[in-house]
Amino acid sequence: MDKYDDLKYAKLDTDRETRTGFPEVVFCEGKPDEYLIGIYKRLIEHDGRVFGTRASEHQYEVIREVIPEIEYNKVSRILKYDPLRKAARDESDDRSGKGAESEGIGLIAVCTGGTADIPVAEEAAETAEYFGGKVRRIYDVGVSGIHRVLSKADEIREANVVIVIAGMEGALASVIGGLVENPVIAVPTSVGYGASLGGLSALLTMINSCANGITVVNIDNGYGAGYVATQINRLAERNC
Fold it and tell me: The whole model's pTM is what?
């Protein structure tokens, strides 16, 4: 029988990594403080690390009181404790300087249409990095200045899988889908004016793309894109 840890208010799937290759991740939004503390403490006890999405600054402060080493990214809203990977990151930063391509297996490219899409992109990128992937960030290459994405086409083509994150009309996914041979995961964002309908316009554009090899996740779902990209990236490296 599969294992789980019953905290009454949460049943933590401690067997998930054995079954799927990925540990349980915490969706922080909406969880009471005391529940979130209990979940984080138990997952760290079990796995030695924990990764949470959609965390608020208040939740960060609450968790930091009991786990001082916790890391929080205000942009991505990721709240994580991952001491081994942090040590590797710090060493890499010391060698090559801030902004260097992340360490990890394979290569996942994360592209955005605009700067406003970066919070969702960082959720995707940090997810892929947490699960062991190497990530290349290519931001603000939207179709309103199409020469920008064309200038990065060779860098994008090197990736095993490409995550394309865009709001407004969401056309960037179709453009990149027509430039690369590897899978594209499109993420519509809620960025845009009234008729963008909170990301619905971008979602419909991406679903209806005439470019092949594009799959679409939910609006603003950077985590989902990072997860699927990791699966594809692992398979690509396994089959090399």
Answer: 0.89
